[in-house]
């Protein structure tokens, strides 16, 4: 019989391999050891109660700049913005327009609510 250490090591490595394989099939790559292979340039516009938020207000609300570059999947940004609205905003839901470009390719757009 294998030692408990060997069994634990095999379980950890097996779990990591499964998570890496899974992360390659989804936009959210939180559990991937592979280097980040996406660079997302983005800008976000947020409207709350009919008023467009300033860059400073966006940074305070989401803890992200209104315009910038993220070296992870765009899903990371989407999760930040959508997550805030669904968990913390309560009745004060904002309208979000996220424009982004992945690895310099064509610009795309994501909106909340959809």
Give a description of the structure.
The protein has 114 residues and is α+β, with helices and mostly antiparallel strands. It has 2 domains: 1-34; 37-112, no CATH class. Helices cover 37% and strands 25% of the residues. It contains 3 helices and 5 strands; from the N terminus they run αββαβαββ. It has helices at residues 4-23, 55-62, 74-87, and strands at 40-48, 51-52, 67-70, 95-102, 108-112. Strands 1, 2, 3, 4 and 5 form a 5-stranded antiparallel β-sheet that branches. A hairpin with a 2-residue loop joins strand 1 and strand 2. It is elongated and about 65 Å long. The model has no long low-confidence stretch (mean pLDDT 88).
Q: Are there runs of 5+ residues with pLDDT below 50, and where?
A: none
SS elements, strand count: 5
Order of helices and strands: HEEHEHEE
State the helicity in percent bands. 25-40%
Distance from first to last alpha carbon: 55 Å
Major β-sheet profile: 5 strands, antiparallel
What fraction of residues sit in β-strands?
15-25%
Radius of gyration: 19 Å
Domain count, please report it: 2
The number of distinct helices, counting runs of at least 4 residues, comes to: 3
List the helices and strands and how they pair.
Layout lengths: L3 H20 L16 E9 L2 E2 L2 H8 L4 E4 L3 H14 L7 E8 L5 E5 L2
Antiparallel strand pairs: 1-2, 1-3, 1-4, 4-5
Write a brief caption for the model.
The chain is α+β, with helices and mostly antiparallel strands and 114 residues long. Helix content is 37%, strand content 25%.
């Amino acid at each position: 019989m294998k030692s408990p250490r060997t069994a634990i090591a095999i379980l950890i490595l097996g779990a990591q391999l499964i998570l890496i394989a899974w992360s390659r099939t989804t936009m959210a790559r939180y559990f991937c050891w592979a280097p980040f292979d996406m660079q997302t340039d983005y800008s976000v516009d947020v409207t709350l109660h009919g008023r467009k938020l300033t860059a400073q207000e966006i940074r305070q609300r989401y803890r992200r700049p209104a315009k910038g570059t993220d070296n992870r999947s765009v899903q990371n940004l989407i999760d930040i913005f959508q997550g805030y609205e669904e968990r913390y905003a309560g009745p004060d839901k904002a309208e979000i327009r996220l424009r982004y470009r992945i690895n310099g390719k064509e610009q795309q757009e994501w909106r909340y609510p959809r």
